[in-house]
Specification:
Largest sheet: 3 strands, antiparallel
Number of domains: 1
CATH superfamily: Regulator of chromosome condensation 1/beta-lactamase-inhibitor protein II
Shape: globular
CATH architecture: 7 Propeller
Strand order of the largest sheet: 1-2-3
Radius of gyration: 16 Å
Low-confidence stretches: none
Strand content: 35-45%
Order of helices and strands: EEEEEEEEEEEEEEEHEEEEEE
Amino acid sequence: MASPPLQARIAAGRRHSVGVTGLGAVLTAGRPSAEELRVAAWADIMAVAAGNVHTASNTGRSHTVGLRRDGTVLATGWNSEGQCDVDGWTDIVSVAAGWRRTIGVRKDGTALAAGRRNEGACDVEGWSELVAASAGDWHSVGLRADGTAVTAGNNQRGQCSVAEWRGLRAVSAGYLCTIGLTQTGRVLATGHLTGMTEATGTWRDVTAISAGSSHAVAVREDGRVVAAGDNSRGQCDVDRWRDVVAVAAGSAHTIGLRSDGTVLATGNDDDAQCRVAGWHLGCAR
């Protein structure tokens, strides 16, 4: 299998953070007894995803997904609606985790999903020519090889209104919003974007993006990081970060992978999800 994007080496949920080392081991930060941290036995992992619960009624519940180098998938944590039932998946090249949902992109460009069906966010079986996917609370987004995007699920705030987007290299689904990164390094956004619209529209020379509950984060070509949106827990305090190559936005915290393999974190640390100071994932360039 091809190497995963750097973005896939880190993931942030509501109350935990996840990282995968160059040797395929998985590191976690969060509540020691939480089920989503039970990854000690995982090996030969190439990418990770973290279910990011944004809704207040489900505070703390989440799950973790790992993609093995052989194209199979592992999952642990909250499994109320079968979001961790991925044991039979094969030929997977990319994974995404949302609220009560896991999405996998197959080698042939098709997609499959496990978990909650109520809002239609798992209705991805008709997707094709995919290279990646992202999962929010109520909607899912797929990135096609031709640089367009496809969506499924709730469109209450316009978070699925991406039909006119072109030239994409990445997509990220947040709570009620979607952001996209173009090949020219600009950021597109749609949906519920309180405090984000004006800022993201001015970002330039961006190489990586991530959408959280109510904030968005981006890495620039110079290794600096920009953020916009809700900063009530300090999740947007990334101005001093340097040499960053990838970011992951959780519900109210943000983590960043530096080129030397170390990891930075800011924001809500109530569940120790920002305790990543000792992590070293291996060279990230």
